Amino acid sequence: MATFDFFFDLGSPYSYLASTQLAGIEQRTGARARLVPVTLGGLRKATGHQLPPPQQLKYMSEDTARWAKQYGVPMQIPKVFPVNSIRALRACIAADQQGKGAEAIHALFRAYWADGNDISDAEAIESALTAAGLDGKALVARTDAQEVKDALRRNTDLALARGVFGVPTIFVGERSFWGNDRLHFVETELRRVVG
Q1: Bond preceding residue 54 cis, omega within 30 of 0
Q2: How far is Cα 162 from Cα 70, in angstroms, rounded to an integer?
Q3: Rounded distance, CA 91 to CA 144, Å?
Q4: Does 1.10.10.10 match the CATH number of domain 3-194?
Q5: d(Cα 72, Cα 129) in Å, to the nearest integer?
Q6: Which of 18, 52, 60, 6 is closest to 176 using CA atoms?
Q7: Dist CA 38 CA 77 (whole Å)
Q8: 52-82 pLDDT per residue, tens
């Protein structure tokens, strides 16, 4: 089965928006998304990017609202923004190690971008994962495991090695597409590759 790589950070509004469209892309192309959590802060530090200025944040707030309306998905800019998403990203990795990564990722994206919960808070993470039918308590406990920490670091290093400078970045083979607004190009490329 053909696959495509979806590099994301839970704290990225455009990663959230793109994540809501992955199932449709999978259904239409027959390809499967490989979900790769990375730390946007780590990418920014390595590439010298700074946090966006206030004018860009204001635009982003309006722009993401337009995209959410177009996709028909709930969205808000949470009170805690930007957020330290490290623990939540590690919870996604811990869940993925149990074959439940997608469930955790979508639950935590919803918790933050739809419900406005603070996903830097261990209790909020646990609650969102438990509500999704996962063992939230055990997954949060695993976020301190060295192998989980190392896996997130490896993902971020892999992203940098592949030229990722922001999220979401989607790869079809070695072709990269940055941003929620490039999903139609992703789908076109997948159709070409899948044949």
Answers
A1: no
A2: 31
A3: 9
A4: no
A5: 23
A6: 6
A7: 21
A8: 777 888 899 999 999 999 999 999 999 999 9
